[in-house]
Amino acid sequence: MKQTKKQIVIRAYTPIAKPLNASIQKNATMLLLGEIPYENGSKVFNTKLYYIKGVRGMLRHACMKLAQACGIEVCHSSEKTELKDGTKLISSGFHPLGACNPPCILRRLFGTFREESSISVLVDPIASIRHKEYTTEVVVQKVHISSENRIALAYDRTPIQDFRESYFSGYFSFCIDVTTLTDDEIKFLMESLLYIEILGGGKNAGYGRVKILDFEVQKIGIVRNIERDNGAYKISEKTEVQPILLENIEEWRTAYMGENLAAVEQEQISALVSDKK
Ligand SMILES: [Zn+2]
User: Fold this and answer.
1) Closest Cα to residue 129, out of 144, 107, 139, 118?
2) Ligand 1: distance of its center to the CA of 37 in Å?
3) Helix count (H) and strand count (E) of the chain?
């Protein structure tokens, strides 16, 4: 089996993030996956895996911000335009999800309730592993995971309710499969990374700040074979990674901004001129 893929691999850091937690009674915990063994020297230990929820949402939000900054109208996250009481749901600069013709850049990338998205956002599970050196059979990202006991206070500072929230801290990476995208669409995604700031909840308390450190656009060649291993068959996989180097990142603007481009550039020039005054 031979396959070629294109992907963007992004390396990020968060001092503390509480990614869209799952709640169990009054405790907000991280999404718990399975437990796996890892080896340190000749000893075997177990560790719990957790999933970082909300990375795709974080990326979608960044794309919406970039589109807004460029004056491009894009899909909102909902098909509804207003609530029963008349409250408007769609702010200016957005149209209801899937209402665009031709499809806007956000819809082409993230799809709608009925259309599949053209990208997949992949995040390897995270785990707290105490040992410095370790090996696992599957890919695991080593971070610090813990819980915080919090107390809600009344005005006179008497505690009225306590609750626990899980968080993680450290370096992590995620990957966007961009195999079916055009270069212009990839460039749009690359530029949207500049707008990533917050992951998960607790923004008011200062939680969830994410710093994107660097990223690579890669072409991956994958070859899988079936091999005999005594009485069993094993699947071997070889991957070859080549960097994709794209020039003129902002070039996507000419493809998607149309008449907006001139207007936005004029605005930026006037802003610069008034700054200098
Ligand atoms: Zn749209």
Assistant:
1) 144
2) 45
3) 5, 14
Separation of CA 72 and ligand 1 centre (Å): 10
The pLDDT value recorded for residue 269 is 73
159: preceding bond cis by omega (within 30 degrees): no
Residue showing tokens 């902002």: 250
Q: What spacing in Å lies between the alpha carbon of 246 and ligand 1's midpoint?
A: 26
What's the 243 CA to ligand 1 centre distance in angstroms?
Answer: 31
Distance 185 CA to ligand 1 centre (A): 15
pTM of the shown model: 0.86
Which of 3.40.50, 3.30.70, 3.30.230, 3.30.890 would CATH assign to domain 2-220?
A: 3.30.70
Instruction: Please give the distance, rounded to the nearest whole angstrom, from the Cα atom of residue 186 to the centre of ligand 1.
Output: 18
Q: What is the mean pLDDT of residues 114-143?
A: 94
State in Å: Cα 79 to ligand 1 middle: 10
Distance of CA 210 from the midpoint of ligand 1 (Å): 27
- Domain ranges, ordered by start, for the chain: 2-220
pLDDT band at 156 (very low <50, low <70, confident <90, very high): confident
pLDDT digits (tens, 9 = 90+) for 12-67: 999 999 987 666 666 677 888 999 999 999 999 999 999 999 999 999 999 999 99
Question: Strand pairing of 141-142 and 120-122?
Answer: unpaired
pLDDT digit string, tens, across residues 225-253: 999 988 999 999 999 999 999 999 988 98
